[in-house]
Amino acid sequence: MRTRTPLALVLATGLVVTLAACSGPSGSGAPKPEDSPLNEYMSAVWGGDLSEDEQRERFEKENAEREELVAECMSDEGFEYIPNTGGSSMSFGTDDAWKPDDREWVAQYGYGMINSPMSEEPPTDQEEWVDPNQDYVMSLPESEQTAFYETLHGPPMPEDQMNEDGSYEYDWEQAGCYGWAQHEVEQKNPAMADEFEPLMKAMEEFWTKTQESNAFDEINAAWSSCMADAGHPGYDAQVDAQMEFNEELNAYYENQTEWVEDDPELAEIGEREIEVALADLDCREETDYRKVQLDIQFALEEEFIADHKADLDALKAAAEQGR
Predict the structure, then answer these.
(1) Are 8 and 200 in contact (CB under 8 A)?
(2) Cβ distance 180 to 152 under 8 Å?
(3) Which one of 39, 53, 189, 294 is least enclosed by Cβ atoms within 10 Å?
(4) With 50 as the cut, is the pLDDT of residue 56 above it?
């Protein structure tokens, strides 16, 4: 059985994140990405409607439960394992630091890919984390150390099963005790239950069709024409501008063999990012891109909800009951 976690996470965050990336300055009464009709359901499922303290408490509870299961599994396999509850934490970004619709912010950071206010924040004082199992593992013969980690995380993925970029399809059954424990914890989320698998598949198909829908052609064409007039042709959709720099940045790091401080090549990419992001912002404002895009998106979501309302209501109720 393949885990459905990646799909679930995409469905929980993809709509809001993508819409936020496309957003422009909000006028009076303009819709906001977080007002997404589907977000009301998925926030209940994934805890987005909880306070930061409640989300942190939920995260710590799930982490502790997962680590206890790992310890149980490792013991069954003949190894000692101390639950590792000190190596994970949940942090929250600040909305005030991220202002992709503010002209001054965009002029300084662009899309926030290369230069970011997050990288400028002073590091917080945190105690150095120590693996509670390190002493035990180091006491084992080398062959047993290898066996310990393979039992914990599964054997190395054969190269012929990897994609060209080194990624591969995650299979919890091949991910050792940690994979099993993670699967056990996830199964308590109703979105991962067999009962709601048809709904989650329908939502995945909806999201794919929405991304490929021609409903956004008119607003994207208006934005694209504006960008061409500003000296930045070649973008068919607003999201393409940001994705272009995402791909360029990935290629830059993939080709790096060593870290180069204040690399002129990276600085040049950052300068172009800011230039395009400012033109993007101008064109979003000129075309009222955010409002039009969100109005279309929300209308499509309402249609999906109308077709699946009973299942969505049941999913939300199950999620709220399980807290």
Answers:
(1) yes
(2) no
(3) 53
(4) yes
> 3-class secondary structure for the chain?
CCCCHHHHHHHHHHHHHHHHHHCCCCCCCCCCHHHCHHHHHHHHHHCCCCCHHHHHHHHHHHHHHHHHHHHHHHHHCCCCCCCCCCCCCCCCCCHHHCCCCCHHHHHHHCCCCCCCHHHHCCCCCCCCCCCCCHHHHHCCCHHHHHHHHHHHHCCCCCHHHCCCCCCCCCCHHHCHHHHHHHHHHHCCCHHHCHHHHHHHHHHHHHHHHHHHCHHHHHHHHHHHHHHHHCCCCCCCCHHHHHHHHHHHHHHHHHCCCCCCCCCHHHHHHHHHHHHHHHHHHHHHHHHCHHHHHHHHHHHHHHHHHHHHHHHHHHHHHHHHHCC
Which pTM was predicted? Answer: 0.69
> Which residue type, as a one-letter code, is found at position 215?
A
State how far the Cα of 293 lies from the Cα of 297, in Å rounded to an integer.
6
Please state, in angstroms and rounded to a whole number, the distance separating the CA atoms of residues 321 and 313.
12
The answer to whether the Cα torsion of 185, 191, 195, 201 is positive or negative is negative
CA nearest neighbour of 182 among 49, 46, 73, 318: 73
Of 310, 244, 242, 319, residue with least CA distance to 277: 242
pLDDT in tens, 222-233: 999 999 999 999
Q: Give the residue, 25 or 284, on which the prediction is more confident.
A: 284
Radius of gyration of the chain from Cα atoms?
23
Alpha carbon of residue 10 to chain centroid? 7
Q: What's the pLDDT score for residue 285?
A: 96
CA atoms of 276 and 284, how far apart (whole Å): 12
CA dist 2 and 24 (Å) reads 38
Amino acid letter for position 220: N
